[in-house]
Structure formats: C-alpha cells, structure tokens
Design a protein that fits this description.
The complex is a heterodimer of chains A (451) and B (1011). Chain A is mainly alpha-helical and 451 residues long. Chain A contains 18 helices and six strands. Classes of the chains: A mainly alpha (451), B mainly beta (1011).
C-alpha cells in the first residue's frame, strides 16, 4: 500500500478514536449547573401549598362564582364566561396548577417524608393533596388519580369521582392521628390553624357530597374550631404575595369581573325585594365589606374590603364547619341542634359585622321571619343560604348548589337555559390523553356522579 | 531606513477600494457579489476552485465591505448577496443586526448562521433583546471591517455539512488579510456624519389635555385648540416653583394662554448630527519565506441621539506566516478589540427615549428637564426631574423627560475581544498536506445599567445593574488534504478532518435598588442596603467534536462530484449525529457549444445538517417555586419563606439534534466572453425534530416536556447577475444585482396552535402552524362569515373574542441592483436595495393616536346641522349633542369621519383612546406594509493621478465620499421609522415597532494615503 493512503487511513482512524472517547462529552450536560437536581420535602411543601392557594382562590373560584351567582363576567373573555361559553383551553392553566404544581409535588413530598420517617411532613402533604383533589373532583368529576403524576405513565386513566372521594377520605383518615395540634409546614397559610381539624373538615366536605350526613357530622365534630381557620396568607402587600382576587380585580384585569346583577347582591342589598333583612338580621355591614360601587362597572367585588390586597383568603373555616354540622343535624331531624350551630355562625357574624341576633326555632316556618313550607324546610334553607353568603368567593358553595339540586334557586345568567354542572376537561388532556378523557368531560352541562 | 515600495498595490483600505491588485481587479469586474469567481473558500476554511462547487455560494469582497462605510461587518453585507437578509436592530451606534440566510429553520433556538473566521468558529452572539432596554451589539461586528479580505456565505446544507449541528442556518466564512509582496503602509481616515433618516410627524394644533380642555400633567394631547388661545400663560408666582440650573423659574400655570409650539425645540433636544472619526493604519509585507499583515484602527462614533449614545472600537491585528522550509509553514492570525459604548433606553419602557419624546404634547417645552423644586413653604428638592407629566418637577414624572433619558441614565457596554489562530501546516508529500489549527475566541462584556433617583416608574428610587458576560470558544482542527490521481480521467481531492470545540459562557452580576446616597452617580452596589441587592450568575459549557471527510472527484475536468460526511458528538445530545452531503456539477459548456455562451455549469446538491439541542435539557430541574395563572396573578415563594420544587418542564435525555435536509439545483452561466454572468439557484429544505417544550397533559405531573416535535420548511430561489457593459482600460462600467425569495412554513408545532416568540400580550410575533415564522398575532375586528365587519349599534367595529393572525413580517422577496463606473481614477458606485411584501406592527403609531399626538388625530371636520344630528362618536353621542355650533349653524369638531359600513361616524378622542387606539385590544388596525426601497449606497472616489502622487512622494492616494441610506421609499406613512428595525433586536420575533430608536443615514468622507 502506498504511503499516501496509509497515512490518511491511520489519521482517519486516530481522528475517529478521538471522536469516540471524550468522557466529558457524556457527562457535562447531565446536570444543569445553574439549577438543582433535587430538593428536600421540607423545601418543596410550601410550593405545593402555594399551588393549592392559587387553585382554590384563582381562576377556578372566579369561574365557579360566575356559575353560582357570586360574580358577573363583565369584560373581554369574561363576557363569554358569563354566558357559559367556555372552551376546553380555558381550563389548561387551572389543570397545570392542580397537577404539575400541586398534586405531583405533594406526592414527591410524601415519598421523601416516608423515606425520612417524617410523619408530620407526610401528613401535611397528604392533607394538601386531598384538599386539591377534593376541590378538583367537585369541579371536574372523574379525573386522573391512581395513575396521575407517575413518570412512567404518559396517559393517566381517569378515576370515578366517588373513588377519588374515598381515596381522599382514606388518606385523611390515615394521617389525622398524627396531626393533632400541629400547624407545622404551613408557610403559605396564616398561623393558628390545626392540621387535624382542617383534615376533619375536609373529610366532612367529602362525606357531605356523598350525602353521608352521619359520617359528615362525625367528622365535622372534630373539625375547625373558632379562631383556627385555615386561610391563605396575604399579609404582604406585593404582587406574588397579595390577595389573588385583588390582583385580578385591581392590578391585572380591571373591569373583567363585576358583581353587577349577581344573585348574592339581591340577598344582602337592603333595596332588594328578596333581601335577607328581617327583625334579627341586618346585612348592611356585610354588604359594605363585600361590594364596592364603581364608575365603570356599577358594582364591583370589594377590592378594598373582602378582596383587599392584604385580606387573607378563607380556605377551610369554622363557619363552614359549623354550617356542615347544622345541615347534617337538620337533615338527620335534629332542628334544635341544627339551630344551635347556625346561631354559632350568626354570633360570629354579629362579632364581625354587627346586626345579627340569634334565631329561635319559632322564627322558622310558614308566616315566620324565615319563611318555609314547614319549620325544617325553612331552617335547612336558611342554613344553606347562610353558607352561600358566608362563603362568598369560595368554590365549595358551587358544590352545594349542585349537590342540593339548587335548593337556593340561584337564577341562570341572562340568556342561558341551564346551569353549568361542571368544568370542562382541559384541551391539553384532549390533545394528548384523548382515549382516557370521558365524553361527559367535554359537556359543561353534564351532571357529575355525586351531584 | 530604506523602504522598498511594492509594485503591486495592496488590495484595499477603509473607506474606499482604490488600490486594487491585478488579480483582484479581474475579479472585481464580477461585481460585488461573485458567484462564479475563481477561488472559493470551503467549509474547512481551505480554498478550492469555484468551478468545482456543486452549490450556490455568495462571495463578498473586501472592497465592498469597506466602501459601505458601516462600522459593522454584518451591516456591510446587506444587499450584497441574494437571500441573505440583514436587519439592523436600530440606528444606534454599534447596534446589532439580524442575519437570515434562506429563511428560518427553527422555532425557539437560534436562526443565526455560524461564523467562521480564518477557519475557526467565533461568536456572533447578541445577548439581550426584548421589548424594552437597550439595543445590544452583535459580536461579529467587533472585527475591524478593514481587516477582511473576503467573505463567503455558504447558504445551503451541502456546502456547510461538515459543520453538522451548527450549520443549519448557513455558515459565513470570513478570511482576514495577509501580507502582500513587498512592503506597503497605508493610512486611511474617514469622517462621517449621521442623521436620523425617518421621523414621526407630530400634530401642532391641539394642546395637552382632554375633551378639548387644556390640563397640565395629563397624558394626552386631546386638549384645546392652540390657535384659539388668548393672552399668555397666567402664572401663580406666589408659591411653589421649579428652578433650572441657569436660573430659569417655572411657575404653576393658572390659565393657559401661550400659543407657542415646541415640536421643533423638543425634536432638537433629542437629535443631533452624529459624527464618526475613523482612522486605520495597515502595514503589509511578504517575501518568499513569509508574510505579515499588521493593522490598528480606531472607530469613534457619536450617535444621532443627543446624549449618552456612542460607540468606540479600537482594534489591532497581526497576521503572519513563516515557511521554515518547503514543507513546514507556521502561521498565526490574531486580533484584539476594545469596545466601549453608551446606549439609550428604548421600547416599552417609561425610561425609554421615544416613549417620553413622542408622547409629549406640542405645547409643552421639554428642554428643561432637571433642576430644583421649591414647594410653597420654600423647601427645596434638589435634582428634581421635570417632564410633561409633572411640569413642576414636584414628583417623578410618569414618563422620563427625553433629556433625562439621554443625559442622566447610563447604559454602557465595555467589551474586550480577542481571537488568536495559530496554525502549522506540513506538506508531508507532494500531494498531501497536514494542517493543525487552534482557535481561541474570547469576549467579555461588562454592562452597566444605571437609573438615577427620580427616573420614571419603578426606577424612581434608583436602580443599578452591573453584569459581566464572558464567552469563549476553544477549537482544535486537524486537517489532512491529499490529491490522488485515480486514473487518467479522474482525480480525487480528499480531506480528512477532526474538529473539537469547547464553548463556555459565564455571566455574573447583580442589581441594586433604593439608593442610599441619592444625588451622586456611583456605579457601586454599596449604595443599596443588602435586602435591596440581588446577585446572579449562570454558566454553560458545550463540548462538541466531529470527524469528517470530504471527497471531491474531478472527472475529465468537467464533471465534479463532492461527497462529504461528518460524524459528530456533543455534550448536548447522546447519539452520534451524521451529516452527509453530496453535490454534482457538470460544465456542459465543454461539451455543448451554445452561441454567445462562454461558460455553463449545472449543479445539484443534497445535504443534511442540524441544530444542536440547548444545554442542560436532559434532566428535570428543581426550581424556585412559583405558581402563575394565565391572567397575571402569581404566588411567589420568596414571600413565603422560599421553596424549591420540581420544575413543571420535564427534561429529556433522549433529545436529538433538529435535522435539516436541503436539496438545491442551480446553474452558473457566462455569456459574451464572460462579460455577463448569471448564477441561479432553487432550493427546498425541511427541518424536522425541532425542539420544543411541548405541552403535555398536566395529569402526568408536568405541563411541558422537551421533545423533538415541530417541523418547518423553506423553499426559494436566488439569482445573482453581473454585466460588464464596458471593459476598457480607462473606462469600466458594471451593472450587478441579486434577487432572492424565500417561502417559509411552520408545518407542525406538535399540538400547539402557536408559540409566542416576542412582543406583547396584545400583539406578538409567533410561530403559527401553517404560517411563516414570526407571523404577527393579536386582537382582530369582529367579522361575519363573509369577512365583513360586524358593527355595533353606533356603526363602529367591535373586537373579536378570539385573537388571530394579523400579518407577516417576512418579505416576499429581497433584491439589490447596482452599478459601478470607473473612469480613469474616478469610481462611482450606486446600490439600490429593495425589500417587498413584509409587514410590520406599527405599535408606536397606535399609541400616538391614543395620545392625540399623531397628525391623523389633529384633523377637524365641519358638519352641517343635519349631519351633526346623525353622526355619532364612539360613545354613541351625536355631534350636535356635545359640540357647540358655529355662527352659521354648522359644527366643527376634532376628529375624522369614517364609514365602516353603516354610515359615517366620527373618530374622536373616545375612539382613539378606546378600540381605535394602540392601547385598545385590536392590533389588526396597526399592521402596515413595511416594504421599502432604498438608495443603500452611493459612493464616489477619486484616485490621485500618478503624477500628483510622485510630486507628493507617495505611491498613491485617494479621496472618497460615500452616502449610506440617502433615500428611502416606503408605502406606509404611519411607520415613522425606517422599517429596517426590530424592537426585540436579534431575536426570532420580527416585525415589531414600539418606540424603537430610529434608523440613520450617513455621509462619509474619506482620505486614503499610501506611504
């Protein structure tokens, strides 16, 4: 062979050798030197809680509020929400917060806490996960749970709404014994709550939706006590920390959301013929706290009151817990105990706003200040109505509305013929997990399993 | 010392090409673009005969780079090669420019070509670029244009295939000068003047205010009619006042009476004649043992913006080579550049120049912008900032006074750049040569951003940023070249190569807020407390190596087959990437004689190249927690004690390079004894596996995953023509031109309808399935199924609920035509350039409508009483209900009558500040045709006759003039800016104007002396 061929061949082989063995090439991209490749569960849990706050207080609450007579969609895309014209794409962001920022993180924390033997951290992650899943299932019905957030499953199957509720109840039961008196790892919430109480009230919510009134009553009896509410912490007046309604109403999306013509206004406005005013009830102070007259939109949610920048947001409260107890007693036939718990709430109202005296059983019934077919019906309606008014801006009353077959008679928005029964399964699921998405998930008016 | 002057003049100088070697002379008759020159640089950095290439190449010669008078090489290339689109970001001195060769190839990665200087890859980054801030430089422009011998643009995949995953956007091969025989010393000096080449017109009829009434400090110019004012301004001189440094006092106005218009004064506050003083000295020498080229240059430019706007670049270069014996040659090319530049804030930015300037009402005088404010009690506020939104300077104005933006804010860029290329070449056989080449390119850029206390907006308490960006690339290149005669008819030129590169990026810096000492400009972090300081750093490293071979077969000296393949590995992808290519060309003129045709070649080629994945997307990161909705609300972990959680974007260890395949066909033809030459190419390409963070169902636990998902394609043609109309000793006349057209299509985005690239919530530049890259997207008018506007009850159009496609910033074609006339020592060169079919979002104009400062908004209409009772404004009020009648019963109102389809309506303040203005949601109405034609270059040079030179005892001298952008023709008067601009700089988002700093035209005078 000629030298002129041997040398290039030898060179070529050498070059190819150089090309093949350079260890750094295989290694340096594996980890991003500017980011972390792992974090402890203790560091992660606040992130999951922030996602829970955004999920409970953000877009989902506003949509549910438009569906349940709290708010009016007034401008831009919210005009179509007002007439229940939603597209699957409108729910993508909510879904991302729920799963990728919420449930996925909770499950990683649970795994890490199990390895580290930290039962409290495990409990916090479990309660946060149950909180997310219960609200999510009340809005979307059947959703991925058993196969969700698993790195090996790209198309998670959908679990039944009842199964998801049972999963959450079991999860809460598992951790409640370890959580009594603890408010550890709760950086996104206002201090002073008790995880075990929160877990019990969440469990009561789930059982109430399943119409297991005795079970719900039992759980709620260990639920949130007065002064120990779980609230999102918005004490810092800055974007990124402040009240999310405030952010939407006054900072980012002025004019989109109004209360003009909303059903709740008719209940507590003195001028309304259907107002709740009677000899023992004066809603004027609560009205001022909830609503704000405005130039552009006739009546706004009060961004300088209940939704002010530094107003903390109610997530799981004593008032809700008491009204669950009241409703369960009423439904189980014990009007007297039901009234006691309703009056507990009226007492809180009186302390907060003034204008609420305790009711007597005699106040309920035909011809009484709380009208009804009979005493029981009048009392139950008042318990539900008080809950509807007290939980202004929260998602859970949208569950009550559907669970009770709209016992409060919340009217349809103008130009519509039926109430939305659910949220739509998002477009991202339809795009890449279509085989699993239930057909009912694409119909805003299709009733959910438990409702 | 005795200096021997060479007989062969050296090629060229800064300013104008006057000393042209015999060989270069011959080539220069091919015009500025040479498609069929004699020697071509291949992708390895070695030369080959242009006859042998099977793909289209554009060559740009030294002469035309320097004669352009541009400070940057990139801008100097514009108009000189077909389908090479250059868009400067703005006219700021040293501003970067975007290069696009044959369309875009990727979605979120870079669409900028690879730059190879003297055979080694170098950086052309332009880091930064968004809707606000300052315009950044392009690193390629660090190189002194006068040092360049030749630029070769490898457009297609086949030409560039050995560069593999760095070649998808084409490769620009730059060769710097080397010493020429003898000794030659040249000095070139250049003085240039720049002017703004296109300005927005502002109305001068209506004053500051709203609803027809004058009011101080308000945003808009919807105030009173200035000519109706009486008397002078009535002032309250008993209380608070503002005092300028020169003692001028400004008192509160109690009644506006003054009719003075300040548009011109305010304009003159902002603009000046930019000046450039450029000096270049070069020494060139060579003998049979070696060659040396040395140069120093200094480019000192003050921009047209009348303040801290400048660019000074000082460079040095030493290129030498030495042949130790017949076999071994050692060489080194090296350059050093130091650049210091001041820049002006622009864009969507309360501290930006045009935002404050163009919004200023015609009756407000901006010239006093700082001073001392005394309140009614006489308490002084020193260093007060005065602007039209706070004319007393009693508080920080909502927008900066332009004077403050230009003079008090500081934005510097301090760059040091060096590139060294040592090389050893060993001819180990008479037909074989081995080359070892090392390249090292490093740049550091220290950027200061300084907003003094009382700057507008969030910078009111002072903001300081300081960052150091360091980039480097080390490369090792081994090449073996050999020639083999296979048989009588076939020879093979074979090249084997190995190229390894190591790219590093490091950035460190910080920002500081809330200055402690408020009245001294200190670029120091210690002027803020620790909780107001934020440090940052980031690092990136990419390793890459490839082995390649190219095999060029020459058959019967008329058929040329080139086969090449590279096998590449890199730290950013796991598997080997192969980039094969093949090209075939046939000189049919050797076989077929066509009358009039002196040369003819047909060529075809195919190649596969790629785009490497970005660094660090293999793994899933753990990041600072933060949840955001689509509406702007966020939960930020830093307010809740901090939290790190798993990123919602999933990494992908199986990521592959994006793969581009291209086929091209072409012909190179010469007629009339080579006097007319034509090069034509058609190409089509397709990029698959484009990397995106694809949306996945969030129930998987992630919202996005890095994937090879999207697809894009391009096709187009390009034509380069040159005609030597007269070719005599004393008179030469050349006509040259090029035209190129590219059609891009984003074929698939893996389920996403569109991907945001750059811009605003309302109007953005996006990748949209089925459209060309960068298409403009935003709010539209509501239309029915017949595409007719759906009007509201008052006859006005309405906003559609869904956003949609608004326009396309990509031209349908771009071309240039020029002529070059040389008569004895006199040379005239004229170059026209055109860009047609591209659209632009005129965001600035939309906002000027909103503020009532555009000419359109100052119109007045007179309506009869009957008509006034019918015509409604956007609030649904008829004219007679809000206007006062004239003496004859008619009504005269400010605004425009327009019929949208339901009868005439009045466009007045309510319309322009609502749906009809730039703050409204309908971006559609501000999309304009941004086509242009310009006189890109007009240059005239005179070479002193030999007799004069002899008398002066110099070998040669010349004088020259170049005009740059002297004339510009456009279709849309609303675009008050040279449409060759881009708000977001060198990014994939294109076609946005929103208070961009303006473009410029230049007058350049040069003198060149050979010593």
């Amino acid at each position: 062979m000629k030298k002129s061929l041997i040398i290039p061949l030898a060179l070529g082989l050498t070059m190819f050798g150089l090309n093949s063995c350079q260890k750094d090439i295989d290694e340096i991209n594996k980890e991003n030197p500017n980011q972390f490749s792992d974090a402890s569960g203790e560091l992660m849990i606040t992130g999951a809680q922030m996602a829970n706050v955004l999920f409970q207080e953000g877009e989902a609450a506003r949509m549910a509020g438009i569906f349940s007579g709290y708010f009016t969609g007034y401008d831009r895309q919210y005009v179509s929400y007002q007439s229940y014209k939603m597209t699957a794409g409108d729910f993508d962001n909510i879904w991302g917060t729920l799963y990728a920022e919420g449930i996925a993180q909770c499950r990683i924390v649970k795994e890490k806490a199990t390895k580290g033997g930290n039962k409290t951290l495990y409990g916090v992650a479990a309660i946060t996960e149950a909180h997310l899943l219960l609200t999510a299932s009340s809005l979307f019905g059947d959703i991925p749970q058993s196969e969700a957030c698993n790195d090996n499953i790209l198309t998670p199957k959908y679990d039944k709404m009842s199964d998801i509720h049972q999963y959450c109840i079991d999860l809460l039961d598992e951790v409640i014994p370890n959580m009594a008196g603890s408010s550890a790892f709760g950086a996104a919430y206002v201090a002073g709550f008790d995880w075990a109480q929160v877990a019990n009230t969440l469990k009561a919510r789930a059982l109430l939706r399943k119409k297991d009134y005795a079970g719900a009553l039992a759980a709620a009896q260990n639920g949130v006590l007065e002064g120990q509410d779980l609230k999102a912490d918005h004490s810092q007046e800055t974007p990124g920390a402040w009240n999310l309604y405030y952010d939407f109403l006054d900072w980012n999306r002025t004019g989109y959301l109004s209360c003009d013509g909303a059903h709740i206004v008719s209940l507590i406005d003195t001028l309304s013929p259907t107002s709740r005013f009677n000899s023992k009830t004066d809603e004027r102070a609560r009205y001022e706290w909830y609503f704000l007259p405005d130039y552009a939109t006739p009546l706004d949610p009060n961004m300088y009151g209940i939704f002010y920048a530094t107003s903390n947001y109610d997530l799981v409260t004593y008032v809700e817990n008491e009204l669950i107890i009241a409703e369960c007693h009423a439904r189980l036939g014990d009007n007297s105990k039901a009234l006691d718990h309703l009056n507990n709430v009226r007492s809180v109202n009186n302390n907060t706003y003034g204008g609420f005296d305790a009711y007597d059983l005699a106040d309920f019934g035909p011809g009484q200040i709380e009208e009804g077919a009979d005493q029981s019906a009048a009392l139950l309606k008042e318990i539900l109505e008080e809950k509807y008014v007290s939980l202004f801006g929260q998602i859970e009353t949208f569950s009550d509305m559907r669970r009770t077959n709209n016992a409060l008679g919340i009217p349809l928005n103008q130009g519509t013929t039926q109430h939305p029964a659910r949220f739509l399964i998002p477009q991202s699921e339809i795009n890449a997990n279509s085989a699993n998405v239930p057909a009912t998930g694409k119909d805003l008016f299709s009733k959910l399993e438990l409702f | 010392m005795k200096i021997t002057f060479s007989k062969i003049p050296v090629l060229t100088l800064l300013g104008l090409a006057l000393f042209v070697s015999d060989r270069a002379q011959a080539q220069s008759t091919d015009g500025d673009t040479v498609n069929v020159g004699e020697v071509t640089i291949t992708a390895t950095g070695l030369t080959t005969s242009t006859r042998k290439t099977g793909y289209g190449v554009s060559q740009i010669k030294s002469k035309s780079i320097v004669s352009s008078g541009e400070s940057g090489i990139i801008q100097a290339m514009t108009g000189k090669a077909s389908n090479v689109q250059i868009t400067r970001s703005t006219g700021d001195p040293g501003a970067g420019a975007y290069i696009q060769i044959r369309g875009q190839n990727t979605v979120t990665g870079s669409n900028q070509p690879l730059i190879v200087v003297d055979g080694v890859p170098v950086s052309n980054s332009s880091l930064g670029g968004g809707i606000d801030g300052v315009v950044q430089q392009s690193r390629l422009n660090d190189i002194n244009p006068a040092d360049i011998e030749n630029i070769e643009i490898l457009k297609g995949a086949a030409a560039a295939a050995i560069w593999g995953t760095r070649a998808a956007n084409g490769v620009i091969m730059i060769t710097t000068k080397k010493g020429k025989k003898g000794l030659s010393i040249e000095f070139n000096s250049q003085l240039a003047m720049d002017e703004v080449n296109r300005e927005f017109e502002k109305q001068d009829k209506f004053g500051q205010g709203s609803a027809g009434k004058w009011a101080a400090n308000v945003a808009n110019s919807w105030g009173d009619k200035i000519s109706n004012r009486t008397g002078t301004d009535e002032l309250n001189t008993t209380g608070a006042y503002f005092e300028a440094a020169d003692g001028t006092k400004i008192y509160p106005i109690t009644k506006k009476g003054d009719k003075t218009i300040y548009n011109q004064a305010n304009r003159d506050q902002v603009f000046r004649t930019g000046t450039t003083w450029n000096n270049n000295l070069s020494i060139s020498s060579a003998n049979e043992k070696g060659s040396i080229f040395f140069s120093v240059s200094d480019w000192d430019q003050k921009g047209v913006l009348n303040g801290n706007s400048d660019y000074r670049r000082t460079t040095g270069r030493l290129n030498f080579s030495y042949s130790a014996n017949e076999k071994l040659t050692l060489s080194m090319k090296s350059t050093l550049a130091k650049i210091f530049s001041n820049r002006i804030q622009q864009g969507s930015n309360l501290n930006g120049l045009y935002l404050g300037y163009l919004r200023t009402p015609p009756d407000f005088d901006n010239r006093i912008f700082e001073g001392t404010y005394y309140n009614a009690a006489g308490v002084a506020t020193f260093g007060a900032h005065r602007g039209y939104r706070r004319y007393m300077g009693d508080a920080v104005p909502t927008y900066n006074n332009p004077g403050w933006t230009l003079n008090n804010q500081v934005n510097t860029s301090d760059v040091v750049r060096f590139i060294v290329t040592p090389e050893a070449s060993y001819k180990w056989n008479k037909n074989a040569n081995l080359i070892a080449r090392v390249g090292y390119d490093q740049s550091s850029d220290r950027r200061i951003t300084y907003f003094p206390v009382r700057s507008a907006g969030s910078n009111a308490t002072g903001t300081f940023g300081d960052a150091m960006i360091t980039e480097s690339e080390l490369s090792l290149h081994l090449i073996n070249q050999s020639t083999h005669k296979i048989n009588e008819n076939i020879t093979l030129d074979a090249t084997l190569g190995y190229l390894a590169t190591d790219r590093n990026f490091y950035q460190i810096g910080g920002s500081a807020l809330n200055f402690i000492i408020k009245d001294q400009d200190r670029f120091a972090f210690n002027n803020s407390t620790s909780e107001n300081m934020t440090p940052f750093n980031s690092v990136s490293r990419i390793l890459n190596n490839r082995v390649y071979g190219t095999f060029d077969f020459t058959m019967k000296d008329k058929i040329f087959l080139q086969l090449a393949a590279a096998s590449e590995r890199a730290s950013t992808f796991a598997d080997r990437f192969l980039s094969p290519s093949a090209s075939l060309s046939y000189e049919f003129s050797k076989d077929v004689k066509i009358p009039g045709m002196s040369y003819g070649k047909l060529r075809a080629s195919w190649g596969q190249v790629g785009i490497a994945p970005p660094a660090y997307i293999w793994g899933t990161n753990y990041v600072s927690a933060g949840s955001a909705s689509g509406w702007g609300e966020i939960m930020d972990a830093s307010y809740f004690g901090g939290s790190i959680y798993r990123s919602t974007t999933r990494g992908n260890p199986n990521i592959r390079p994006e793969m581009k395949r291209e086929t091209e066909f072409g012909a190179d033809l010469k007629f009339l004894d080579n006097r007319l030459s034509v090069g034509a190419t058609y190409y089509m390409n397709n990029t698959k596996d484009i990397i995106l963070a694809v949306a996945v169902p969030a129930s998987t636990g992630y919202t996005n995953q890095w994937s090879n998902a999207a697809e894009m394609k391009n096709s187009g043609y390009e034509l380069d023509v040159n005609f030597a109309a007269i070719k005599k000793d004393n008179l030469q006349w050349n006509i040259y031109g090029n035209i190129g057209s590219n059609k891009n299509e984003v074929v698939s985005l893996a389920g996403s309808k569109s991907i945001f690239l750059e811009g605003f919530t309302g109007t953005s530049s996006r990748a949209i399935e089925g459209q060309q890259m960068g298409a403009l997207w935003g709010g539209k008018w509501l239309r029915d199924e017949n595409d007719k506007l759906v009007l509201d009850a008052n006859g006005f159009p309405q906003q559609a609920p869904e956003e949609g496609l608004l326009g396309d910033p990509n031209p349908t074609w771009r071309g240039a035509i020029g002529t070059n006339l040389t008569f004895k020592g006199l040379t005239l060169n004229v170059l026209f350039e055109a860009c047609q079919g591209n659209q632009m979002w005129g965001g600035t104009y939309g906002i000027m409508n909103n503020f009532g400062v555009s000419m359109e908004t100052a119109n007045e209409v007179t309506l009869s009483a009957d008509k006034a009772a019918q015509v409604k404004n956007a609030r649904g009020t008829t004219v007679d209900q809000f206007a006062t009648p004239n003496a004859d019963g008619t009504y005269t109102v400010r605004g425009n009558l327009k019929d949208f389809g339901a009868g005439e309506v009045l466009l007045d303040q309510y319309w322009y500040t609502g749906l009809g203005g730039g703050f409204g949601p309908v971006g559609e109405q501000f999309i304009y045709d941004a086509s242009w034609v310009r006189l890109r270059e007009l240059s005239l040079s005179y070479q002193l006759p030999e007799s004069v030179c002899k008398a002066l005892h110099i070998p040669g001298a010349s004088l020259g003039f170049t005009g740059r952008n002297l004339a510009l023709w456009t279709n849309s008067p609303q675009l008050g800016v040279d449409p060759e601009t881009n708000l977001t700089g060198v990014t994939n988002g294109r076609g946005l104007d929103y208070f961009n700093n303006p473009g410029t035209k230049s007058y350049i005078f040069s003198l060149s002396v050979k010593i």
